[in-house]
Specification:
heterodimer; A: about 80% helix; B: seven-stranded antiparallel beta sheet; 31 strands; about 20% strand
């Protein structure tokens, strides 16, 4: 459990840092590396990457959307089209990041020696 | 290590990233954004979500700034720029334009240069390629280069444009992916460096918008179809009810030069039947505007009041950016064009000015005879002359480039030929060259540069000398009490009928000859005309005693109502002017309604129809948002117009100019048996009663449907938008509750209308008001994106605060940006 939480937090933190310097997919490297370093079963690795990015991208979206009073998210959610729903747009944002994060993490975990943990 | 699961998950994950890292085609020429980066909260659209109550304070380092500068933003995000020199002011203005409006200024200059396909792809039916070819063939880029050469010859213009460009580039240079305006992220491209040519392109874009329209082809077709007698009936050169800008009866200077029609013009030009199938790009024909100024004799304060509302496409982001600029040389307030330096419409400490479009015909076509299909040589002055050739490369997103070979003749570039028929689907081997005033070298920037610091009528007149195209009506008022109007620009002196139709292009006799000398351009003073005011609303500037031919196709109704109201007003206040700028009275309906009511046969109407008739009969002639009268009236009139003219016009297989509605209504008032009333497709002879009644009965089903769909009231029926430049509804403001219309002073149509309303009261301390449909920020994620729209729609104004140097601590200053 502790490993899971550490993985999630570390992935989220490194992903954020990658986002500052790298293109949008930079966080995949972070999720991959964390899964490579912290031994977890593949499914757990997937969840740590998934949850980390769900929290990071979803959380950042919420943190941006609240002070913006959803001015932009309502417009973009109507264009995409998500029926103008800010909630759905935040969810989609988090989910897209999470899917890539989870995928990168499980890929990293498969690279670890089998049952070394 | 589990190699197979590793490879599978690696493949799936990189595949997912790959899919999220590209645009997907949605058909119908629509593409998704690059979803991965678009959704990324650190790169994509979320970064454009500006916190409400953002802090705009800051310090900006601009290399090469001569002194320190300050920008004080008020609560509307209007910047009050305090610069140590004029060049610094342009530098800071460039920076601010880019900071708040970068995408639109680049997009508009791309459009001007014929580069839309580069950003948007080929488009449905290759519409963007056709657009780009049209702009390139017209010579927009060459015209901009000629303008740039003139700008660079003038040391002040060059200095200011260089500084402006440096300001724009200072902003672009520090942009990170996340900072890009939303539209770049939606379309997936990046801005390129700004340069002075783009400023010139922006000016040419305005010339295109305001002086790039004509109906030479449609008129040529009409003259080939109708008899000379019918032509005079359908297209009179002056309307009876015209009230010109310069009052009727004004004496004009004896012309220094009178152009003469070439020998043989009757047979070779006026009566030579030709039909043309090529189609020009439809530029906005209804670009209009109002401006007027009243002298102190008519105001309560005894100080002049100047008003202007230019009508353009109502777009998001707005074409205008409001600002005050204070330098050692001037203190000016008004609206600027993101894409060019200076305040374009506004006022300084001494004077105010405003503009409307002159609408003179400065674009003509010549029929070119090429020797063969290589189009290398054309027949001119009895010999084969070699045409200049250039190849334009049009880059197209997602496709191979398109290479367009364009020939240029002594008349100008060949706009249409076998390889390009414009927006027509009909093949044609004929060639037409275009002569356009905006292609001539000129420096319109110099006029605005001088306007910033004009102190008197003489300064204003002097500043106008460099203004050539698009011709405008420049209204002027100053604190000494002078109130004036000048129609300015360099206009070709034309013989009567020159350029009304496509002209023969085989010898020099049909060329434009000289320009009208500047002192012969129409002008007037409010007081010398003993009228106490000047006004313009795109109507014909003068009556038929003016010695030069002006072209036709001028709208008359806004001018009529403006002059009627101003004539009857005294002790005027700015509040009166606000009421007037938002006035929705319809003079055309005032003339046409009695005609309709006189000829309708009430016996044929059922109860429902009688109800509609009573509504239109009792209507107060104001196009107010909740009125049903204007809806019924406009349907009725439009149907009658079709009833009367469709039979004749649909018989011709080519497109022809439809007569102005003022022509038709005036003809019908004078003669109810006007020859076009009869339907030529039926054996019997229709009379006006029959046509008017039939038109009314035909609109009843539509009215009933509108009633069910809640579209029977004027604002809902007209449906005014302030539309995003990419026509994305979600980034636009739709369904605004605004009245008015094309023929009203408040000329708010569906996508077009008063783009800036300004009222300047030239009292000791200037009192001014203004509003535009938009907001200071071009960012759809900002609360300042559209915050002026509701005020504009409901006819309210903001006070324009000319901030003094002693007011830097004033409560109205919300943020300060330091430039060093």
């Amino acid at each position: 459990m502790a490993k899971l939480i550490v993985s999630i937090l570390l992935t989220a933190l490194l992903s954020f840092v990658c986002g500052l310097f790298l293109p949008w997919w930079g966080f995949a490297l972070a999720a991959f590396v964390v899964a490579l370093l912290i031994p977890q079963r593949p499914l757990f690795a997937f969840f740590s990457g998934f949850i980390a990015l769900l929290l990071l991208w979803g959380g950042l979206a919420v943190a941006i959307d609240l002070p913006n009073q959803s001015i932009l998210s309502a417009k973009v959610a109507a264009i995409l089209p998500l029926g103008g729903s800010t909630y759905l747009l935040i969810f989609v944002t988090g989910f897209v990041g999470a899917l890539v994060g989870g995928g990168a993490a499980i890929t990293g975990s498969f690279l670890r020696p089998v049952r070394s943990e | 290590m589990r190699i197979v699961p590793f490879l599978i998950s690696l493949f799936l994950t990189t595949g997912l990233i790959f899919c999220l890292n590209r645009q997907w085609d949605l058909g119908d020429n629509k593409k998704t954004p690059v979803l991965g980066s678009f959704l990324s909260p650190q790169h994509g659209f979320w970064q454009n979500a500006e916190p409400v109550g953002s802090d705009f304070n800051g310090t900006v380092h601009l290399p090469g700034l001569e002194g320190k500068g300050e920008v004080y933003f008020d609560e509307y995000l209007v910047p009050h720029v305090y610069a140590k020199s004029e060049a610094d002011a342009c530098y800071i203005q460039g920076y601010l334009h880019a900071k708040f409006r970068l995408w639109q200024m680049e997009f508009q200059t791309f459009a001007a240069a014929g580069r839309l396909s580069e950003v948007l792809g080929a488009g449905k039916d290759e519409v963007y390629i056709k657009y780009d070819r049209s702009m390139r063939r017209l010579g927009m880029v060459e015209a901009a280069k000629a303008e740039l050469a003139e700008i660079e010859k003038d040391s002040v213009s060059k200095r200011d444009c260089d500084a402006y460009t440096a300001g724009v580039n200072a902003w672009i240079g520090q942009l990170k992916e996340g900072d890009l305006p939303l539209e770049y992220k939606l379309l997936n491209y990046k801005p390129e460096p700004w340069n002075n040519l783009k400023i010139a392109l922006f000016i040419k874009d305005m010339a295109y918008e305001l002086a790039g329209g004509d109906n030479d082809f449609e008129m040529t077709n009409a003259k080939s179809y109708f008899s000379r007698e019918d032509m005079a009936k359908l297209y009179p050169s002056i309307q009876d009810s015209l009230d010109p800008i310069i009052p009727k009866g004004t004496k004009f200077l004896t012309p220094s030069f009178l152009p003469k029609a070439p020998a043989g013009a009757d047979s070779l030009y006026f009566n030579n039947p030709v039909t043309i199938t090529d189609r020009e790009m439809g530029s906005e024909k209804s670009n209009g505007s109002n401006n007027w100024a009243v002298s102190g004799t008519k105001t309560i304060s005894h100080a002049p009041i100047l008003c202007n509302d230019p009508h353009l496409n109502t777009t998001m982001p707005s074409i205008w950016y409001q600002m005050q600029i204070h330098t050692p040389g001037y203190n000016v307030y008004g609206v600027s064009f993101p894409g060019a330096p200076f305040v374009i419409i506004g006022f300084n400490d001494d004077c105010a000015w405003g503009i409307t479009n002159a609408g003179r015909d400065v674009r003509d076509y010549y029929s070119i005879r090429f020797k063969d299909e290589t189009r290398r040589e054309y027949w001119f002055n009895k010999e084969w002359k070699t045409a200049e050739m250039r190849v334009d490369t049009i880059l197209i997103r997602g496709q191979q480039p398109f290479y367009d070979t364009v020939m240029t003749t002594v008349f100008g570039p060949v706009m249409f030929d076998e390889s390009f028929t414009g927006f027509s689907d009909v093949a044609s081997s004929r060639s037409y060259a275009v002569r356009w005033k905006a292609a001539d070298p000129s420096n319109e920037m110099a006029t605005f540069s001088r306007f910033q610091s004009i102190r008197s009528y003489d300064d204003y007149k002097q500043a106008l000398l460099t203004f050539k195209c698009p011709g405008q009506n420049f209204v002027f008022a100053d604190k000494s009490g002078v109130v004036a109007m000048r129609q300015e620009g360099e206009f070709p002196a034309k013989w009567k009928g020159q350029g009304l139709y496509v002209m023969p292009g085989e010898d020099s006799s049909y060329l434009w000859q000289r320009s009208i000398p500047r002192e012969e351009n129409p002008y007037m003073f409010a007081d010398s005309a003993n009228r106490g005011f000047v006004s313009s609303a795109n109507q014909e500037p003068v009556d038929s005693t003016y010695p030069y031919y002006l072209g036709s196709d001028f709208p008359i109704y806004r001018g009529l109502i403006i002059n009627r109201l101003l004539n009857n007003m005294n002790s005027i206040t700015p509040a009166d002017m606000m009421k007037m700028q938002t006035n929705t009275y319809d003079v055309f309906a005032e003339m046409a309604r009695p005609l309709l009511l006189k000829y309708i046969d009430r016996g044929q109407l059922n109860d429902k129809a009688t109800g509609y008739l009573n509504t239109v009969r009792q209507w107060n002639l104001y196009n107010n948002p909740l009125e049903e009268g204007p809806v019924i009236f406009n349907y009725w009139w439009n149907q009658l117009y079709k009833n009367i003219l469709d039979d004749e016009f649909s018989k011709a297989s080519v497109s022809m100019t439809r007569p102005q509605e003022s022509t038709v209504v005036e003809a019908l008032i004078k003669d109810s048996a006007w020859s076009f009333v009869d339907n030529v497709n039926t054996p019997q002879k229709e009379g006006l009663t029959q046509e008017v009644t039939d038109a009314f009965l035909k609109i009843i089903p539509q009215l009933r449907q509108d009633e069910q769909n809640d579209r029977i009231t004027w604002a809902k029926n007209k449906d005014t938008w302030v539309r995003h430049l990419l026509r994305i509804p979600q980034l636009s403001r739709e369904h605004l509750p605004i009245g008015g219309g094309a023929r009203c002073i408040n000329a708010a149509k569906q996508f077009h209308g008063p783009s800036w309303r300004m009222i300047v009261h030239l009292t000791n301390k200037t009192e001014a008001y203004g509003v535009y449909p938009g907001g200071q920020s071009g960012n759809p994620g900002s609360p300042y994106y559209d915050n002026f729209v509701d005020y504009w729609a409901t006819g309210r104004y903001y006070p324009l605060w000319v901030m003094g140097p002693e007011e830097v601590k004033d409560q109205r200053v919300k943020w300060v940006m330091h430039f060093e």
